[in-house]
Write a structure and sequence with these properties.
The protein is 27% helix and 37% strand. It has 2 helices and 5 strands, in the order ββαβαββ. It has helices spanning 37-53, 67-76; strands at 9-17, 20-27, 57-63, 79-84, 87-93. It has a 5-stranded mixed sheet, covered by helices on one side. It is globular.
């Protein structure tokens, strides 16, 4: 597979406040899903948030039917902390930080 400079997805830190942030990740081009890109981008974004902003608590949420997103968050070390309708809320505490 060859990357040709097209936008395949994004990751972001949203709602940064009081050393907390929400991790947002999307891989919009299906041929790039399942290749580890989202995992690596998320891991790098979390490291950036920790180093540059001192973020020690990350939040994320996904639809209960989005199994790929759920697996990604769990692989990163996020823990499920609640549900609201079809949305599952996750949390990652830096005290649990390990190089993934």
């Amino acid at each position: 597979m060859e990357y040709k400079g097209e936008l395949i997805g994004y990751t972001d830190l949203a709602y940064i406040k009081d050393q907390r942030a929400e991790l947002v990740i999307a891989i919009g081009v299906s041929q790039y899903r399942g290749k580890g890109i989202g995992f690596e981008a998320s891991r790098k974004m979390m490291e950036y948030g920790l180093k540059e902003f001192g973020i020690n608590l990350f939040h994320a949420e996904t639809n209960e039917y989005n199994m790929a997103s759920r697996r990604l968050l769990e692989k990163l070390g996020y823990k499920e902390i609640g549900r609201e309708g079809q949305l599952i809320q996750y949390e990652y505490k830096v005290e649990n930080y390990k190089k993934v």
